[in-house]
Amino acid sequence: MSKFFALIGSYFLLMRKVFTKPDRFSETWKQFVIELEKVGVLSVPLVAIVSIFIGAVITLQTSYNLTSPFIPKMYVGYMTRETMLLEFSSTMIALILAGKIGSSIASEIGTMRITEQIDAMEIMGVNSANYLILPKICAATIFNPLLTLLSFSIGLLGGWLIVTITGVVMPEQYEEGIRYAFQPYYVVYAIIKMAVFNFIITSVSAFYGYYAKGGSRDVGRAATNGIVNCSLCILISNLILTHVLL
């Protein structure tokens, strides 16, 4: 238990170093733009591919289970929309990004730690935590919630394509279900969750990379620990946010 509280304390002490005034805003801005591409833009193809197939699968599964003649077929589109928006396009995408982004961040910073690049920055008077971690957190937290909207839109498109190809329901019924009883607040809810999840992914992964010790094997271990703990924190925060926001 003492190790757990020591770990939590070290995390918050690192975050205090991260969220300080940058020494040079121009350099922080340059890093922010670079990180936008690394943690956000480069994740778009993965999110798009996963979402279109998951949207199609959810649509097929829903249509095969709605066998009662008393249930309108338009509920296939309704259930696809609700599933994608409330859970998949935020929580599931965040868990996928935890593996992609989290491992990259932990490995990058961990390698800099064991090759003493971070020590060199500290000797030169640079706040290494602020310089290395803050742009990653800001880029992911600001940009990646847009991936929720992308995933949601492409998932619905995947559902529409599969009903058009297979004819399990009429496309008009599917489209009617998408429009039925839509609540715009659910979009806000999904975006808030994604922002929180991406803060967790970047900060926790950076924490494990920043305090990596040893050699290359230890960097791999730090990346693995970062992914596992990111996923656990995402699931816990998902439960809390759902209870608070809905």
Explain the layout of strands and helices.
Elements: H1 2-18, H2 25-40, H3 44-65, H4 75-114, H5 117-123, H6 128-143, H7 145-166, H8 171-179, H9 185-210, H10 216-245
Tell me what the structure shows:
- Helix content is 83%, strand content 0%.
- It has one domain (24-245).
- The chain has helices at residues 2-18, 25-40, 44-65, 75-114, 117-123, 128-143, 145-166, 171-179, 185-210, 216-245.
What is the domain total for the residues? 1
How does the overall form come out from the CA principal axes? elongated
Sheet with the most strands, sense and barrel status: none
Mean pLDDT level: 91
Radius of gyration: 21 Å
Order of helices and strands: HHHHHHHHHH
Helix count equals 10
Query: What portion of residues belong to β-strands?
Result: under 5%
Distance between the termini: 33 Å
Fraction of residues in H or I helices: over 70%
Can you count the beta strands?
A: 0
User: Which spans have pLDDT < 50 for at least 5 consecutive residues?
Assistant: none
- What is the structural class? mainly alpha
